[in-house]
Amino acid sequence: MYTTELASRPRARAWVLDTIVGYLTGVRRVFEIECTTSIYSGLLRMSDLLSLQPNLDIKLYLVAPEERRDKVEHEIQRPTFALREKALPEVCGFLPFNKLCETLEGIRKLQLASSLKPNFLEKVAEYFAQEPDT
User: Fold this and answer.
1) pTM as predicted
2) Are strands 29-33 and 92-96 parallel, antiparallel or unpaired?
3) Percent of all residues in the chain with a pLDDT value above 70, rounded to a whole number
4) 3-state secondary structure the chain
5) Could you report the per-residue pLDDT of 8-64, keeping only the tens digit for each?
6) 24-33, 88-97, 109-118, 123-132: which is most confident
7) Which of 13, 14, 34, 46 is deepest in the core (most CB within 10 A)?
8) What angle in degrees, to the nearest 10, is found between the helix axes of 69-76 and 39-52?
9) Which residues fall within 8 angstroms of residue 92, CB to CB, at 6 or more apart?
10) Higher pLDDT, 103 or 6
11) 91 pLDDT higher than 70
C-alpha cells in the first residue's frame, strides 16, 4: 500500500498531509503535495509564500511520486526559483511518496513518534542546490 500508487488514490493528499502533521508540532514545515498538478505550480506557490513572508524561517517540502523526481530537479533549478534570496533548491526538499511512506511506517512500527524531532525530514528529503563553482 505504501507505494507511489498511493498518489492515484483520491484521498492520498489528505492522508499524507494528515500523517505528517500528526508527527510534527507547530508550523515549522510546509508541504506541497503534487500528484496531479504541475511541479512548476507547486514550486511557484512555495516561492510566493517566501516572497510574501520573507522573514519566515521554515523548511519547505515538495511531496510527489518518485517518477517525478527529474521534473522536480529540473524545475527547481529554473532561475525564478534558484536565484531568489532564499533559493528554493536550498530550502525546499523533495520527498518521494514511497520513501516518505516507508519512513513513516518504520517510525510507526518502532513506536518512535513520541521522540521524533521534525528535522528527521531533512535526512529523508533530497535537495537540489548546486555546488558553487570553484
Assistant:
1) 0.75
2) unpaired
3) 77
4) CCCHHHHHCCCHHHHHHHHHHHHCCCCCEEEEECCCCCHHHHHHHHHHHHHHCCCCCCEEEEEECHHHHHHHHHHHCCHHHHCCCCCHHHHEEEEEHHHHHHHHHHHHHCCCHHHCCCCHHHHHCECCCCCCCC
5) 444 444 444 444 444 444 567 788 888 778 899 889 988 988 888 888 788 899 999
6) 88-97
7) 34
8) 40
9) 43, 46, 60, 61, 62, 76, 127
10) 103
11) yes
Cell for 39?
A: 511541479
| Size of the chain in residues | 134
CA distances for 126 relative to 11, 51, 75, 93, 99, angstroms: 25, 23, 14, 5, 11
Closest CA to 91 of 79, 78, 82: 82
